[in-house]
């Protein structure tokens, strides 16, 4: 039995390999389509599964690839133990991958990478069906869960968010108080003034960029859509179809305003003095004990900052300082999504679905990690109290037929929003040396973006 | 039964025959390394050559676009600009070789504690490149190791630059790490070569009144020429494809992105796999050309192995021609 399962997996891997080997086209899609139908018929829908009641005698060895290397030996092992109380026949092996975003794409191409992984962001939506098991119809799943847009294609969902993040700024309340900041800054210039106050009145580093870790820089890209515009259609529509989106706006909103904060903070000496040798692990402790005042990171970071020392109660989280027509907005977006391997055996797929469902509904993972809940109607962690009166913006999906347009333009232009730290890193480098100016940098972005927009027919 | 035994003994005899036996040994010994080489070097390389003709991502459909990727590499300004950084690493490799040669000539004499020093200096080569990167990241951090050591020498913090941020110096800082890492390995190769020099030559030279420099110039140097060429080719090839130090220490920021770092970024962050493959193929051609040029230069100045250098040959021929002319006159 085991032998045949292996053999089957190898066969599928071979099919994958040939379909990848360049002949591509019609033949490959035919087999993929056939497979998809087969899977859909055999594996029950995600919403119909009852964790703890269905398939309790199922036997499966699951391999789970994750980016959360810090939890592999601790929290996740407890999850596995909990899950095994209901499903003693299921074993789950976690594999933590340090450079997850880079490695997972290559692993996926082999087809034989394991059973559950976090769906990589770079994957185009029309490819999802070739790699992941569909969870069900989006309209049906949306009755229970939020933020399903990112990995849905043609009303079919392929990824369930592990947690939700909002994109704001993590800060140390005590430092703000010591510096004499009484009101949370709401515009870029107010924020820069607050940083200046921190520099003048305290010994803390006003804004720590964590430049050397490089992935941390992409956090700045995450603000440019919902947080900076308040428009849920901006990410998948406005940014793609408008001319020169990186241009400066008179009311200081939009992408330019976000990058302006970073550029000016660095240029005015409000960041750490040597960005090339910053230390991510160390920065958590510094934030906790007030040596660092603010950092630009998603809300997932709050819990890590709180646990990094004795002053967890000092850590606060605030919206990104941009006000659109007198109102503040904050992007809410899913963290990595769980995906189930389409090449796994049927038993493994069912067991994986059960585990993903358990993780989503029963593990409390999102709450424990300081994320916003994925299931509708669940409570928010305390840290979001600051967000009263701030509107959460969840990006709407791209219109039909344009599902891959954003990725196409983003990759082709090499602007690399959210996928490449280089664009943001360049802003910091330029601000350090003084050349080029932010206007020049944004003009360069605009011209590359426009060229790709034209190439893919997004604008005329 | 007897027939089978007879067959078996025939086969055994056939296998023991000198020629067959030798072939068999060659084949079995070569099989494993060749197999590994094929699987992990040549097949991936051929695949990559193939990729370079496609407009492709890791996942998704690919489109054959002929030589367009190669054209694009030449049209972009960041690719070849990045190659200029190799000059820093080539410079470093010369420093590294001269240091290695110096230590090798000192340590190849019967010096007390010589083996211990050899061990110490060879040790960095055994550390993996990523770890070396992390070591130096902390080494260059402001107020850390290097700054502290320099403070002992009387420098104040304000006089010292930011080793990795200052664009006038950061490439030198990073290239210096590869000196630290590879110097010991070069040295060990040199020591091996120097040890193989016949010691009676030194005695003869000493009797003729040669000093240490003369001994080095006329005995040691010509005997280890081949190893020097080898080391040099390896160093320069390595310089052109420098990747680990800038990738780990600065991630290519502040103008330290070498050709490989740019290539890695294009392939992984922008998903332009075809373009990155084309860059790799172009670099291969450049490295082959550089190796060839080096070999020719060496042949011209120093000759190869026992062979005389072209320059000397030319000079002698000219002298001969001159002499002949004078004789005629």
Give me a quick take on this structure.
The complex is a heterodimer of chains A (460) and B (329). Chain A is of the alpha+beta class and 460 residues long.
Describe the model:
The complex is a heterodimer of chains A (460) and B (329). Chain A has 460 residues and is α+β, with helices and mostly antiparallel strands. Chain A has helices at residues 2-20, 25-42, 75-86, 100-110, 128-131, 138-141, 173-178, 188-201, 218-223, 226-229, 234-241, 254-267, 280-288, 301-307, 346-361, 365-368, 405-412, 422-433, 438-455, and strands at 60-66, 90-96, 116-119, 136-137, 152-153, 156-157, 160-161, 164-166, 168-172, 205-207, 292-295, 315-319, 323-324, 327-334, 337-340, 391-394. Chain A contains 19 helices and 16 strands. In chain A, the strands form five sheets. In chain A, strands 8, 13, 14 and 16 form a four-stranded mixed sheet that branches. The longest helix of chain A is centred in the first third of the chain and has 19 residues, at 2-20. Chain A is globular. By secondary structure, chain B is mainly alpha-helical. Chain B is 75% helix and 1% strand. Chain B is built from 15 helices and two strands. In chain B, a hairpin with a 7-residue loop joins strand 1 (54-55) and strand 2 (63-64). Chains A and B meet through helix 4 and helix 18 of A and helix 7 and helix 13 of B.
Give a topology summary.
The complex is a heterodimer of chains A (460) and B (329).
Chain A: H1 2-20, H2 25-42, E1 60-66, H3 75-86, E2 90-96, H4 100-110, E3 116-119, H5 128-131, E4 136-137, H6 138-141, E5 152-153, E6 156-157, E7 160-161, E8 164-166, E9 168-172, H7 173-178, H8 188-201, E10 205-207, H9 218-223, H10 226-229, H11 234-241, H12 254-267, H13 280-288, E11 292-295, H14 301-307, E12 315-319, E13 323-324, E14 327-334, E15 337-340, H15 346-361, H16 365-368, E16 391-394, H17 405-412, H18 422-433, H19 438-455
Parallel strand pairs in A: 1-2, 10-11, 14-16
Antiparallel strand pairs in A: 3-15, 4-6, 5-6, 7-15, 8-14, 9-11, 9-12, 13-14
Chain B: H1 2-16, H2 18-51, E1 54-55, E2 63-64, H3 68-75, H4 78-84, H5 86-107, H6 114-126, H7 129-140, H8 145-152, H9 170-195, H10 199-207, H11 212-240, H12 244-249, H13 259-268, H14 273-301, H15 310-328
Helix pairs in contact in B: 3-14, 4-13, 5-9, 5-11, 6-9, 7-9, 9-11, 11-14, 13-14
